[in-house]
Fold each of these.
Amino acid sequence: MKPIHKFNNGNGATLCNACSVIIETGLTDALLCEECKKDYDKLSLVFDSEHRVLQAVKEIAEERIAKIIKQRIESKN
Ligand SMILES: [Zn+2]
């Protein structure tokens, strides 16, 4: 994994490798947000390759984001 840096504002930002949330403003070495880091640590005990672990963390993050979006839609009805 490499840090993901975004440059479109003054200081830039570092994004989560799994869910693309901004972890820190400025360009740092951070790789994952708090939530994805927790999942990553758990899943690295299950899968051997970093690629598989990251893929699983991404899928979990997608589900988490989908749930939040659904809740927002439902609270407007
Ligand atoms: Zn994340």
Amino acid sequence: MDDFLYKDWYAVCLIEEIKKDKILLKHILNQEIILWKKNTKIMAWENLCIHRGSRLSLGSIKNGILKCAYHGWEYGESSQCTKIPSQPDIKIPKKACVKNYKVIEKFGLVWINLSTNPNEFIDIKEFNNKKYKYVASGPYFMNAAAPRIIENFLDVAHFPFVHENYLGIKNKAEINDYDVVTSKKGIDATNVRVFQPNPDGTNKPGEVIYDYHVHSPFFASFGKNISKKNRFVLVFYVTPISEFKSMIYSITLMNFGKLDKKTTREYQDFITAQDIPIVESQRPELLPMDLQSELSIRSDRISIAYRRYLKKLNISFGVS
Ligand code: FES
Ligand SMILES: [Fe+2]
């Protein structure tokens, strides 16, 4: 596993996916993770009982204690074993502790980090601006490699075709020469002009300017300035389940109007459902790092920058 990717933060669930006294099972980077909560505190552990290695996801939770289904060993929120029913009198060894992971909870999502030496958690600037309302959506599942999914997120040229009459119009499919800058912080593409059927919600077709950002290999966002003051932002997190299978969460942010949870989620569900068959169909499944192996044109410059960026970070997961 690439060191940089292993140390990154991954969106693992919506906060509301973790129900009281229920164990939530997730798969990240070929590992099984269980999530559960005590009051409002969220725990993320390896799905493995340290006694005989059975899956803790088969266990149960009562009064803030997680009990393994096999021999009933009990674990408290610190993941330390607190009770061994077959030998209640022995001193429980310190080693009797389930592997646990760091958790961050924010904007309706939960992120975890598998590493003991995590990369910095990246906040986008709109997160700290109180004028923005937000709604988290997902999970979406794709039988596709994470870099393929990010590249599709960065691609505006597919709007008129895959999202016809929603994000683009077929007879206005031309993409301008936008600007792309790669730095230590990732990639910024600005002045990306897209002709849309209804860019500001007034049903008047017109051009809208997007800015796209890659913050880390599987984490990107775009902003679209609907008017001088009104801005719409979509933040996009791809969490690899394995090299060929991924889970996606997004956060919609707006500094204007009403942001209804149900409508926002339904819209994101609808748009993502249009992307899924296309991205799942792409061959090779792993994103080619050899820039000659697919045919790139000027309007693909952000995807070229993305492939170069992955190469520079020495990413080998999800690419070929
Ligand atoms: S394997 Fe979990 S208690 Fe024995
Ligand atoms: Fe799309």
